[in-house]
Fold each of these.
Amino acid sequence: MSKFQPVHIVDGARSPFLKSRNVPGPFSASDLATISGRALLARQPFAPEQLDEVIVGCAGPGVDEVNIGRVISLRLGCGNKVPGWTVMRNCASGMQAIDSAIANIQNGRSQLVLAGGVDALSRTPLLYSDKMVMWFSLMAQARSLGAKLGMFAKLRPAMLLTPVIGIVKGLTDPVVNLMMGQTAENLAWKFGISRQQMDAFSVGSHQKVSAAQKAGHFEEIVPLIDANGKVYAEDDGVRHDSNLAGLAKLKPFFDRTYGKITPGNSSQITDGAAWLLLASSEAVEKYKLTPIGKITDTQWAGLDPAQMGLGPVHAATPILQRHGLGLNDLDYWEINEAFAAQVMGCVKAWEDPAYCKQELGLDAPLGTLDPAKLNIDGGAIAFGHPVGASGARIVLHLLHILRRDHGGKRSRHGIATICIGGGQGGAVLVEAV
């Protein structure tokens, strides 16, 4: 049994997840986090200045928001004395912020922490090529009119017409030189997952998000209003009419000749923020808080970057072993949907005797995860994956699922887990109160 000291979840909130439309979105990352965080703090019985720290996960802060955790903390009205800082663990940055808060609470350094994640991926910049950057540098050094004219003579149209797409560079592993979608292709090949199976999984994700929206199951969302007065009240990437025939028309993106991974069975590029308010038992008593849940264990794991999508298997399995749990002993699971092949690959890895023995050191496979327990309100394929926010979002939403009335059935605990670019996985064991 783990010696982990549980940490209370007092409350949480998130912004709507807004799909990138190939133009900069209406909100910066700090806007998304500040608006949703302000609404969360406004309903608490303590002042923002009474927080011990604010921790934010962010994979791609803007150049004007480098330590975005501090920027957000000040914008939230926490005051000069509340430290605000930023963590980055790729797709699990928001989960890392939560785990960093847990560590500080457990060692007595903090009692009350606002932790979460954010990214505005639509605002990822276009970058000039090295040749263009060098041209700008030499132009700046040119002093005479003749020298400047000489530099213009060296300017080639191709240097201006071939910008480096920042999001593509950020989603490429520099060690194995594979884009994240190519690592998903590896899993599809490894476990024999067909294109039709992936597309069917993706249609299911959209259908589940659509049904959950109609049922009002995303109560953690704080609406946004842009500068023109437009209201953004819900995740806008879901396709309510998603179907297999439509997805079948999409061409593979990462391996255009033999591939199966398309934009339709991949997570969407999205902007969003998610928060959790974490507290020690002392803080709960001091401020007379009413926790909605607690985190009872966390785990990080590493694996081959070329198969990074199996990170949830490597991170969640040790938690199950420590607590004597089987896959289906948990009430619900949230596995972040980076790609359909990635989630399906995780399920197949737990079923595979060879993988469980060779990679996890198990004598037997863990079995088949009940699909009725997995991502019951859909996932990132339908409403997007703002990299810094997703790890926090799945923890928060899992807790809401556990607290929901499921036909009179009481739910107790579940695991939220996520794959991480670079070959890692993170998992959090959550218990409802």
Note: The CA atoms of residues 127 and 133 lie 9 Å apart.
Amino acid sequence: MNAPYRYPEAGLRRRLSSLLYESLLLLGVLAGGFMLPYLVVGLAFGVSPQGWFAWLHITMLLGLYFVHYWRRGGQTLAMQTWGIRVVDALEDRPPTFKRACVRYLLSWPSLLFGGAGLVWALFDREHRFLHDRLAGTRIIRIK
């Protein structure tokens, strides 16, 4: 039984298109928040941080980006472009800080294991991605 939501679920094609566009926009986020600081530190001090630190830096940087925008209004720039929003599964409001963090952390294995969490949407009764189902969020269409 589906709950009476104010906005409908965003279609899979729209969500995947937004995800593709988001990956392009993240190049700018990584250039400004990752590559530029490493370039400055490398030139100024002649050092390069360890590989594990670089991965931790990337993970934290992207986490700050996504959690900030999901909490602020439920949308990143790519999501605004495609007219979709992340909301709490029970209410049409942006996810709590905790839900946004859980969604972000769960999205990594969802994407990295061959996109299994995305394929999950084909079989889910409400067509949610696995990380949305587990985090208690959903993606709605607002346009």
Note: DSSP finds six helices and two strands in the chain.
